Amino acid sequence: MELTLNNGVTMPALGLGVFQSPPEETTAAVQTALATGYRHIDTAAAYGNEREVGEGIRRSGLPRQDVFIETKVWVSDYGYDEALHAWDKAVGKLGVEQLDLFILHQPAPDRFEKTLAAYKALETLVEDGRVRAIGVSNFMPHHLEQLLQATDVLPAVNQVELHPYFQQPAVQAANAEYDILTQAWSPIGGITFYPGWGENRKNVMRDPVIAGVAHAHGKTPAQVMLRWHLQQGRSAIPKSTNPARIAENFDVFGFELSPEELKAIDALDTGVRSGPDPDVPRPERFAMVIPEAEGE
Q1: Cα distance between residue 113 and residue 126, in whole Å
Q2: Is the pTM of this model over 0.90?
């Protein structure tokens, strides 16, 4: 299933995410995903596993043009020249000459001038063909408005936390207004049950409504959530390094949720964010230096 971005580039709707995937497990996960049928891999400079993603793609034996590669610029590389160099680092680690989608990882409102300069570098990269499409991640509607007033190329994608318990309707509406594709990170609510993300979280994977829909279709809760995203026109990038889960998350094209089932899942939104708030500066995290491509 392909989605057409606002610049005409097509992207597989479902991708493999590799956030928090240890480098030593990432190559095998990517190789497994590509053997399963995935053709879209989402990584980021900040994940520290771009090199392993590239190795997994090479080991798959697939032609480069058959795999859609998405990665992200980290905040410490914001600024015009810095973001151009971030591209050098990314392609060097991935072992490719062109990125399919290159996005800014955070709005970083505490240094938004640098954010804008970094986006202008992305505009240069897409104009000269080093990148096929550009976008943003974790941008709220007010960040988007500020960006659009200062730049020329519409973001093709805005990747945000989005799962049944946190659906960000205002963000989805702003994206739709500007013809920006909404891409869900934590699409099956992993952020609600990953260890280390706070106590007393309500695990969306155990939600009785989702369990009921899953039972009705002979599917798993994860498959139901991914189907919900796809039927509503979003891109989803579930992460896993487990081969059985990687296969399960891809097996979402042979069934359809009814309008009533989609509405029942829509009704689960709590409005409670589980991941970091994009409007809260994180100076220590933002200062993390992304290593050069050579000599790591």
Answers
A1: 20
A2: yes
